[in-house]
Each structure stands twice: as C-alpha cells, then as structure tokens.
Amino acid sequence: MSSSSIIWPQKFLPGTTDNFVSNEIYVPNLIAQDVWPNLVDITRWESYYDNAGQITPPASGPTLQNPGEQFSFATFGFPPLQAQIKESVAPTATSPGRLAWRAWQDGDADSAFEIYHAWIVEDTEWGAVRILTQESQSGKPAAELAKQRPNPMLLGHQRWLDGLAAASVTAKAKT
C-alpha cells in the first residue's frame, strides 16, 4: 500500500519556507472514520490538545468542512490566527480523509507570518489508521520557531496527534 501525501500549494512546498514539520502516527484498532469527527469538529480540539484555544468556528458551525470558510484559534502563544479552510474531504473505506487550512497573522516584517497546515487520515491494509499532519510556515516568527531546540512545533503537533488518537480510542470504546 502506498501512503497518501499532502497536496501543497507552490508557495508552501516543504524546504522552501522558514519552518516545516511533519508528524505521523499509526493507531491500531481504529479506522479513519473513527478519527475524522474529532479532527474536523474544531470545538473538540481543546478537550484533547492543550495548545489550542480561543477558538472561533466557521459561520456554518463547528465542523471544518466547507473550503473557503474562515475560523480562528490561538496556538503556540500567538494571538488568535485567522484561518481559511482549503481542503476538507471526509475519509471513506477506500480513500483518505484530507483536511488543510491556511492561517496567518498580519503585521510588519517582524511579526507577520503565514502557514499551511494539512492532515491525512487513512486506513492501512493491516488494520491501523495512519494520521499525518504537516505544517509549512513563512515569516520571521516562523524562522524563530524553527531555531528553537527542542522544536516546539514538532513537539506540539505530536501532542496533537497523540491527543487526537486517545480521544478517538475513547470515543470508539463508548459506542
């Protein structure tokens, strides 16, 4: 089985921006459809990820499902970032779930930055779910994050994946 990959806009291609991280886990005994609701319902994030807050869902409701819609959230100590859904395709038994957004902070040359954050949630042939998240960032704040050791974005996104997986296991056990 070949794994799906992120569809990157040209300006966010990995290796061409100021900061890039990739995190991936495989979780046994879950399927993509168990994970998807916990990822796309933005109001659930704070219950399993301690680095998201001040969430404002899209106007249509709490689910990140309509490309073009905007939402906002605070993360990594930044004030709430404006974000726009770029891709949202729910998983099926034969195709991966895909979620991506562009987020930004306006400002001057020292404070403005832009990110592209993408997710893939897909079933494997061996009965695990693969959850991949990658983020590419441009701007001085992104370059400063990339210099930090340990890398806070890499560690933060790993906590996000681990929390998402745990929340999905717990939700499945209740059904």
Structure, briefly:
The chain is an alpha+beta fold. The protein has helices at about 30-40, 45-50, 140-145, 150-175; strands at about 20-30, 55, 70-75, 80-90, 95-105, 115-125, 130-140. It has a single domain (about 10-175), classed as START domain (Alpha-D-Glucose-1,6-Bisphosphate, Chain A, domain 4).
Please outline the helices and strands.
Elements: E1 19-28, H1 32-40, H2 45-48, E2 53-56, E3 70-75, E4 78-89, E5 97-105, E6 113-123, E7 128-138, H3 140-147, H4 152-173
Helix pairs in contact: 1-4
Order of strands across the main sheet = 1-7-6-5-4-3-2
User: Which structural class should the secondary elements be placed in?
Assistant: alpha+beta
Number of helices: 4
Give the N-to-C terminal Cα separation: 29 Å
CATH architecture, by name, is 2-Layer Sandwich
Query: What is the CATH superfamily?
Result: START domain
- Which series of helices and strands comes N to C? EHHEEEEEEHH
The tally of strands reads 7
How many structural domains are formed by the residues?
Answer: 1
What is the CATH level 1 assignment? Answer: Alpha Beta
**Helix-residue proportion:** 10-25%
Tell the overall outline: globular
Give the rounded overall mean pLDDT. Answer: 96
Which fold does the CATH topology refer to? Alpha-D-Glucose-1,6-Bisphosphate, Chain A, domain 4
Main pleated-sheet profile: 7 strands, antiparallel
- Residue stretches low in confidence (pLDDT < 50, at least 5 long) are none
Radius of gyration, in Å, reads 16 Å
InterPro entries: START-like_dom_sf (IPR023393)
Protein name: Polyketide cyclase
